[in-house]
Amino acid sequence: MGVEICVEGLTKSFGHQVIWQDVSLTLPAGEVSVMLGPSGTGKSVFLKTLVGLLKPERGSITIAGQDITKLRERDLYEVRKLFGVLFQDGALFGSMSLYDNIAFPLREHTRHPENEVRRIVLEKMDMVGLIGAEDKLPGEISGGMRKRAGLARALVLDPEIILFDEPDSGLDPVRVAYLNQLIVDLNAQIDATFLIVTHDIASARLVPDNIGLLFRRELVMFGPRQELLTSDEPVVRQFLHGRMQGPIGMAEEKDAAQVEQELAELGTGASTGDGEASAAPMTPRLLPGPGVTRPPRWQAIAEREAELHQPQKKPEPEREPEQKEVTDA
Ligand SMILES: Nc1ncnc2c1ncn2[C@@H]1O[C@H](COP(=O)(O)OP(=O)(O)OP(=O)(O)O)[C@@H](O)[C@H]1O
Question: Which Gene3D superfamilies does its entry note (predicted)?
């Protein structure tokens, strides 16, 4: 079972530049959460802060009962073993085969004999569909395969928490669909706590239990997916619909009057032609694929989804009461 991460009042700056402030959220143990936000709002900085690579100025990050912002480097090293991190480009060593790349954390952090290393590496390569590619160099394979190799490497120490930094960047839509299924299947299999940073709204609608959004140096919202997906908050709506009208500008924030006018036009459909009065219907949740055993948590999700997305039965038309034949006496 993964562990909960509890973030309270977290603030991170570089010099005078505040990246985000007073961020509080709880990543529930074993659940999948997604963090969204326009470019430069500090999503990668957030991941690096969670894993203790960057120090916040204020606030706490409690993992397995310890506030990691207060730990010395030596103790932090132990806590980091709870984490697997999938970096944007897979962060593989270019001169090493995939096998050696994936074996690297085991050789660095454990005393496993080589036959045990081999067993674990092949098990993880199998999980991400890379059996047969052991001898390939990262430069010889596609971007999607590099992501999967990075994921296998993130898995070898059996992490309780996995952080994914834009796992879908640079992948075609079909590979993104496969990767999303792999993430959901993995979550069902290993039950770790997942946090995914992504710009892919379709993935954000399908995959997580919880969604958060960073904007204007703050966490605008964080909560169960249905709360975000049906939210009326203009920033959330703009981001989820990927449209220009709203508070998020090209480079910086827009002024309030312009935002108001854009949203008013949008409400009447003046600028898009169709208006956007009602929220989009809830996207069905992506479930573990066939052959993946569903632990109770996923079984409960599957049952809820089946109920939510069952086609509504049309009520039987009421029948007119039969007219009694009236006969003249
Ligand atoms: N080590 C650092 N020193 C100084 N500034 C930094 C450092 N790391 C990140 N930043 C700044 O923090 C801000 C947030 O960067 P970050 O990469 O976290 O954004 P992001 O939301 O992940 O963006 P994107 O979606 O484009 O990947 C940027 O302005 C960046 O220049």
Answer: P-loop containing nucleotide triphosphate hydrolases (3.40.50.300)
Cβ pair 16, 53 in contact under 8 A: no
Domain ranges of the chain: 5-224
For residue 319, give both structure tokens.
């029948």
CA of 156 to the centre of ligand 1 (A): 28
The tens digit of pLDDT for each residue in 96-136 reads: 999 999 999 999 888 999 999 999 999 999 988 899 999 99
Q: Which two tokens stand for residue 11?
A: 């603030």
Decide if pLDDT at 216 tops 80: yes
Say how many Å lie between the CA of residue 41 and the centre of ligand 1: 7
Quick check: 147 and 85 in contact, CB under 8 A?
no
Does the structure's ipTM exceed the value 0.90? yes
| Ligand 1 pocket mutation, candidates 10, 12, 43, 218, criterion most atoms within 8 A of CB | 43
Pocket test for ligand 1, best of 11, 16, 39, 45 (most atoms within 8 A of CB): 45
Per-residue pLDDT, 314: 60
Which residues, including other chains, have CB under 8 Å from residue 325's CB and lie 6 or more apart? none
Ligand 1 center to 42 CA (angstroms): 5
- CA dist 14 to 39, 48, 55, 225, 251, Å? 17, 14, 10, 31, 19
Whether residue 89 contacts residue 145, with contact meaning beta carbons closer than 8 Å, is answered with no
Q: How many angstroms separate the alpha carbon of residue 117 from the centre of ligand 1?
A: 36
Find out whether the beta carbon of 19 lies less than 6 Å from any atom of ligand 1: yes
**Lookup: tokens for 3:** 């562990």
